[in-house]
Design brief:
Order of helices and strands of chain B: HHHHHHHHHHHHHHHHHEEEEEEEEEEHH
Number of strands of chain A: 7
Number of helices of chain B: 19
Strand content of chain B: 5-15%
Largest sheet of chain B: 6 strands, antiparallel
Radius of gyration of chain B: 26 Å
Structural class of chain A: alpha/beta
Oligomer: heterodimer
CATH architecture of chain A: 3-Layer(aba) Sandwich
Strand content of chain A: 15-25%
Number of helices of chain A: 5
Structural class of chain B: alpha+beta
Number of strands of chain B: 10
CATH superfamily of chain A: Glutaredoxin
Shape of chain A: elongated
CATH topology of chain A: Glutaredoxin
Helix content of chain A: 25-40%
Distance between the termini of chain B: 57 Å
Helix content of chain B: 55-70%
Largest sheet of chain A: 5 strands, mixed
Order of helices and strands of chain A: HEEEHEHEHEEH
Number of domains of chain A: 1
Largest interface: A-B, 36 and 49 residues
Chain lengths: 176, 640
């Protein structure tokens, strides 16, 4: 084996090393600009009853959780058990934001799978989503008593996120 | 609710295809190594069966889209009942799982073509080539079945699907990925030939002659695929650009650069028996770049406008596959390459040298693109922070590397094999040089603005064109030119046309961002564009605001233009649908921005001189490739 013919192989091994390390990094791990900023205000109809509306103002003085979901969203089904647990725990109001969805589809999905939310608000045209910088459904926000966003999860909540981030944060914010 | 079993048929066909691919990948290779005929003859039937199975599987997925089977997860995530049928079919490869299935389907298609068209080839060679392709297919099928099954069920079924990203709802998308993948995957044949010849130890001219039409065909598809993608970005993204040095674009461009080098290197290996090791290495590299591209796009290690969902398992699997395929190939290369013989000797000034120089520039160019693409990842991996590399890097590095390539392109065809003397070259090329210099000074002066860079662009383009015309004249005096010769000329002319387009657009485009109310007029490139009004319009699955513009030249209305701002029912992102009045010497490009106070709109207007020459040049290159493939030498062999 002559040395010069091994060079391509060696170069490739170095490249693979870098790619392997790169795989463990998240290129999208850019902190949301909304963290520690006031949650954008909105007022939209509730899912269960169109005549009633919901606004973040209603929950001023409480720590609460906003979860963006939709009946067409497949990843939402994945996090659904976590939301059920969070809802049952009663540590904080869990508000759903039904994003770009049809009312009938959304209601059927809740009826079939169980409704973890204290209530859901309808974001038919996705305007609330734009203000909150929704990147993809599902997303979850923890908002403190003063209406400041303290935490944002992009993508489904996992057991880990729930136990290590969301519960402790809610407990801490509730004490404040 | 009842669910049809059809998706399971597709899934089952994939599993069967995996089994058949394992047979195709293992037995013929061992058979060829140990001289067992009964094993080696399995290669062809196995290839045919796995192609058939993949066709079934792919057909089933397309069917699921056609009938809106939202009990299939992939369909629910990428289609919806309001999506027009054409885009439902385009959506088959609109996501990760489906595009991988397309990848493998095309791979087995190429293998099938090799099996059908290789009747005259040594059966050991055929067995090895098909065996290598079988191994590659096995790896990818494992990947699909293990991490990205397109037939995964969603039970209970979704009421309706999520729909395809509106950006991708475009005729361009229906054809762009299949073309691109045909090219990507096509390099697997050149790769398989290279590996087969390394295994057999027969690195010879016959191998090169065999590889050439396959490599060129793959290159044609890749050229067209990249051009389509660029054209799509130009008219669909609404930014008026035609190339963004986006990581995903780069992922398709790197195999093209290496593939172009490979095509030229194969000529030397076939005709002169030279550069064998170099050609084999290029063949390995071209396919490695295709796999690397797949890795970069599919693993989510890089962000880009083509962002796809990230699943870490997928990344690890593709990386493993990449390391196995490329690592073992390069290992084999390190073992076998030193044994190959040298080709015919050549002097310092000869066609061989010129082609080799061009090749080196192509590889360096591909390397610089690779570096720029991976640099953010390297920096992150070394914990030096998060950065991004943009067009300034690529333009600064890539363009200078292409200058000598263009220079050599006009010289190479004049040089003889083995040796050439400088005097003859100068005698033949001085006219081309004069023409080029005149063009370089005259055109920018006529256009009204002279810069060194613009002059350089025209100098090189006309250098290539003039040299080509002189070659054609000379060839016609001797006799009827061969298809290979015509192919080469078209390919090189295509590059020149492309360079003219790029230079013109770069130097003389006009762009105006203005606020316009109905009745207002804006002037670009000698045209007046008047806004008549903006009103609502309804599409099959979107609502739009549609502007009506008059394109006026010399007081006469030439054309009405209708740019749109669309809101798709299933997406938050408003989409800009630019209106383009295309022409041979210029495009007028109008796109609607945001509504402003009153009834005014933000409007962006571009005047883009010769922009269509960019894609025209690519078409010429592809056409050149087609002529080269149809050269008599190959056709005779196929027919026999």
């Amino acid at each position: 084996m002559k040395a010069k013919f091994i060079i391509p192989l060696l170069l490739f091994i170095v490249l693979v090393g870098f790619l392997a390390v790169g795989l463990n990094r998240d290129p999208r791990e850019v902190p949301s600009p909304l963290i520690n900023k006031p949650a954008p205000a909105f007022k939209v109809p509730q899912l269960a009853d169109e005549k009633k509306s919901f606004s973040p103002e209603d929950l001023k003085g409480q720590v609460w959780v906003l979860n963006v979901w939709a009946s067409w969203c497949v990843a939402c089904r994945e996090e659904h058990p976590m939301l059920m647990e969070l809802g049952k725990s009663q540590v904080a109001p869990l508000i759903g934001l039904d994003y770009k969805d049809k009312r009938a589809d959304a209601m059927e999905m809740l009826a079939r799978q169980g409704n973890p939310y204290n209530l859901s608000a309808m974001d038919n045209d996705g305007r609330v989503g734009i203000n909150y910088g929704v990147y993809g459904v599902p997303e979850t926000y923890v908002i403190d008593k003063a209406g400041i966003i303290r935490f944002k999860q992009i993508g489904p909540i996992t057991k880990d996120v729930l136990d290590k981030s969301i519960y402790p944060l809610i407990a801490q914010l509730n004490k404040a | 609710m009842e669910y049809s079993m059809i998706p399971e048929i597709g899934h089952f066909a994939l599993i069967l295809a995996l089994c058949v691919s394992i047979i195709q990948g293992v037995l013929p290779l061992i058979g060829a190594q140990q001289g067992r005929r009964e094993w080696l003859v399995l290669a062809r039937p196995a290839t045919q069966i796995s192609f058939l199975l993949l066709a079934i599987s792919f057909g089933v997925l397309a069917w699921c889209f056609y009938v809106n089977d939202f009990s299939v997860l992939y369909v629910a995530e990428h289609s919806n009942s309001q999506l027009p049928t054409v885009y439902r079919l385009g959506a088959v490869w609109g996501g990760h799982e489906g595009s991988l299935l397309l990848w493998i389907f095309l791979l087995t298609g190429w293998a099938f073509a090799v099996a059908q068209l290789s009747k005259t080839l040594d059966e050991f060679m055929v067995a090895r080539v098909l065996g290598v392709l079988g191994l590659v297919a096995t790896g990818l099928l494992l990947f699909v079945l293990g991490t990205s099954n397109p037939f995964e069920r969603l039970l209970p079924a979704a009421q309706d699907g999520r729909s395809l990203n509106p950006l991708l709802q475009d005729p361009g998308l229906v054809f762009h990925p299949p073309m691109l993948y045909m090219g990507y995957v096509g390099f697997s044949v050149a790769f398989a030939f290279a590996i087969a010849s390394l295994l057999s130890g027969k690195l010879d001219a016959a191998w090169a002659r065999w590889s050439r039409p396959w490599t060129t065909t793959a290159w044609i598809f890749l050229t067209l695929g990249i051009a389509l993608g660029s054209w799509w970005a130009y008219y669909e993204l609404g930014w008026g650009g035609w190339w963004f040095w986006d990581p995903v674009e780069n992922a398709s461009f790197m195999p093209w650069l290496i593939g172009t080098a490979l095509i030229h290197s194969l000529v030397v290996t076939e005709k002169r028996g030279g550069f064998k090791n170099w050609t084999v290495l290029l063949a390995i590299m071209a396919f490695s770049m295709s796999l690397l591209g797949t890795f970069l796009v599919r693993s989510g290690v890089l962000t880009s406008v083509h962002a796809f969902a990230t699943d870490p398992r997928r990344g690890i699997f593709i990386l493993l596959l990449l390391s196995l395929v490329v690592g073992s190939s390069l290992f084999l290369y390190a073992l076998r390459a030193p044994k190959s013989t040298l080709g015919g000797k050549f002097s310092l000034l000869s066609r061989e040298t010129l082609i080799l120089m061009g090749n080196v520039f192509f590889v360096v160019a591909a390397g610089s693109v690779l570096l720029g693409t991976l640099y953010p990842l390297l920096i992150d991996a070394l914990n030096l922070g998060k950065i991004s590399v943009g067009p300034p890097y690529f333009n600064a590095v890539f363009v200078p590397i292409m200058v000598p390539v263009l220079f050599l392109m006009a010289v190479g065809p004049w040089a003889s094999w083995k040796t050439t003397d400088l005097k003859t070259l100068l005698k033949r090329l001085w006219i081309a040089a004069v023409v080029a210099f005149i063009a370089a000074i005259a055109i920018p002066s006529l256009m009204g603005e002279f810069t060194i860079l613009t002059a350089l662009g025209f100098l090189l383009a006309f250098w290539v064109i003039a040299s080509g015309v002189l070659q054609i004249i000379r060839q016609c005096k001797v006799g009827m030119p061969t298809r290979s010769f015509i192919g080469m000329q078209l390919g090189h002319m295509g590059i020149a046309v492309f360079v003219i387009g790029v230079t013109m657009v770069g130097a003389y485009q006009e762009e105006k961002d203005v606020r316009m109310a109905p009745g207002d007029t804006v002037t670009v490139g000698g045209y007046q564009i008047r806004l008549m009004g903006v009103g609502p319009a309804q599409g099959p699955n979107y609502q739009a605001m549609r502007g009506t513009f008059e394109l006026v030249r010399n007081g006469k209305v030439q054309e009405l233009m209708y740019p749109e701002k669309r809101n798709y029912d299933s997406s938050t992102m408003p989409m800009t649908e630019a209106a383009i009045d295309a022409g041979l010497t210029r495009d007028i490009y109008v796109s609607l921005g945001e509504p402003l106070e009153g009834n005014a709109w933000a409007v962006r207007v571009y005047y883009k001189p010769f922009v269509d020459w960019i894609w025209g040049g690519c078409l010429l290159m592809a056409l050149g490739g087609l002529f080269a493939v149809m050269d008599k030498r190959y056709r005779l062999r196929v027919k026999k």
